[in-house]
């Protein structure tokens, strides 16, 4: 899934050499991007806390920075993925209904509504919270 790819924890290696090469190229590009972000947030003398947090990275993979970036931006990524989903489209599959006996379609572009307990980031925002907690479930169990 996207979160695992961004964080560099994707277990899927690909079915063939071409898939593996593409995945390796993607990870190299992500590493360059996070290297630039790392440079931007740690070069300013005012960011002592960030310098300490991201100082040690034995694999030069920017793992802590990737985790923090994903945590801060996952809802924005989800919103970007689902922003153009039209009503009645087949982007989302049917899931268990509220009564656990029937199937229902994902609604509201698969975003949590205020009535379901979702909270906006700031007052007046639309609620666009990612409706799953798959980030915290090991990949092999999904």
TrEMBL record:
Organism in which the protein naturally occurs: Plasmodium falciparum (malaria parasite P. falciparum)
Gene Ontology MF term list: host cell surface receptor binding
Any single Gene Ontology cellular-component annotation: membrane
Protein's name in the database: PfEMP1 protein
Domain of life of the organism encoding this protein: Eukaryota
Gene: var
Domain Duffy-antigen binding: 1-142
Pfam families attached to this UniProt entry: Duffy_binding
